[in-house]
UniProtKB/TrEMBL annotation:
Coiled coil: none
Extent of the WD repeats: 103-145, 249-284
Listed InterPro entries: WD40/YVTN_repeat-like_dom_sf, WD40_repeat_dom_sf, WD40_rpt
Domain of life: Eukaryota
One Pfam family from the record: WD40
Segments for region (Disordered): 211-236
Biased composition (Polar residues): 219-236
Protein name, per record: WD repeat-containing protein 53
Gene3D superfamilies per record: YVTN repeat-like/Quinoprotein amine dehydrogenase (2.130.10.10)
Keywords, comma-separated and alphabetical: WD repeat
Length: 337
């Protein structure tokens, strides 16, 4: 949970944001809890929160040309910023300079960016072109991509999902699991989609050399043709590489805005999603991911929050461990035991 310095700083910065029309999109702690990065418009600012109300930016980065939608910081001190142009800027915070520009994977707004913790030179992005892309950001090139808007994936996703919303499958948010969750069995990401679905993707399988996936796989190809690996949450395939959590399983009836793996309890066991249908869904996703079980992924909790969900996060505590921001003026905190 935040230190007393961080609590003071958040209160100060929110007050400042309201006064000056500063739009704060996100902030991220790195190294120690006294150093924070915040994006506002097309700027990124870093602060030492121990300074409280006297805090002034330590650094300001202006490499993004359009409004920033999300920032992330890697264990190596690289800062990624995804913006409305579809580009992602990678900043070396040690040398305080632009390191790489990730471009051309997205043809529309890049809405989300995360680093992959067990692959220190790899990042993952999602956009409103319905694409998910994984990058070697040291070389500025994509390793693979999934086009959720492709006819093949659209047809696979819509089968058996009567009542599913018909919005485009925009990628609104991406969450990457921490290394070592559930005994180190899974290295996955979760994708919040505009059509109301949540996908969980086995990143290590997708990133494996083509020869280990069989003769039909071409290295560097997009995943839109990999319909044989698309799961629907049930155990009807001998080897699950992706699962698809949608309306037919009790999922969202409108766009999913955010996803997060649980930091409470058994870390990563549960997946929490929030959507424009004013609901939170808590999934036991790993049951349907393992080929060694006969169980399906299942919805374990459905919470009506009354308002559209904008963002959520989880905390590694026994109480007050699910925090939700919606379209009301109240931040809601839930206890998940």
């Amino acid at each position: 949970m935040p230190s007393k310095h961080l609590k003071k700083f958040i209160l100060f910065f929110v007050g400042r944001a309201n006064f000056t029309r500063f739009y704060v999109t996100c902030f991220h702690l790195i190294g120690n809890e006294d150093h924070v990065y915040i994006s506002a418009g097309n700027e990124i600012l870093s602060f030492d929160i121990r300074m409280g109300s006297q805090s002034k930016p330590l650094e300001t980065y202006n490499y993004n040309r359009d409004e920033i939608n999300q920032i992330a910081v890697s264990s190596k001190g690289y800062l990624a910023a995804a913006d409305d142009s579809g580009d992602v800027k990678i900043v070396n915070t040690t040398q305080k300079c632009l390191y790489k520009r990730l471009r051309e994977a997205h043809t529309s707004i890049c809405s989300s960016v995360q680093f992959i913790p067990w692959r220190p030179w790899t990042a993952i992005t999602g956009g409103l072109d319905s694409k998910l892309a994984v990058w070697d950001f040291s070389k500025g090139r994509t390793l693979f991509s999934i086009d959720y808007g492709s006819p093949e994936l659209q047809n696979s996703s819509s089968s058996g999902s009567t009542g599913q919303c018909l919005n485009p499958a925009f990628v609104h948010s991406v969450a990457v699991s921490e290394e070592g969750i559930l005994g180190g069995l899974y290295k996955v990401c979760a994708v919040a989609r505009g059509d109301g679905a949540v996908d969980v993707v086995d990143l290590e399988y997708e990133l494996a050399p083509a020869k280990s996936k069989g003769p039909s796989r071409a290295r560097g190809s997009t995943m839109s043709s990999k319909t044989t690996d698309l799961g629907d949450g049930s155990n009807n395939q001998c080897q699950r590489r992706r699962i698809h959590l949608d309306y037919s399983m009790g999922g969202h009836t409108a766009a999913v805005s955010c996803v997060a793996f649980s930091a409470f309890g058994e870390k990563g066991k549960l997946l929490v999603s929030g959507g424009n249908d004013a609901s939170l869904k808590v999934w036991d996703w790993s049951k349907g991911f393992s080929p060694e079980t006969s169980s399906n992924s299942e919805l374990v909790l459905d919470i009506d929050v009354k308002k559209k969900v904008n963002w959520l996060c989880t905390a590694p505590t026994d109480s007050d461990n699910l925090i939700v921001c919606d379209t009301s003026k109240v931040v809601k905190v839930y206890n998940f035991l």
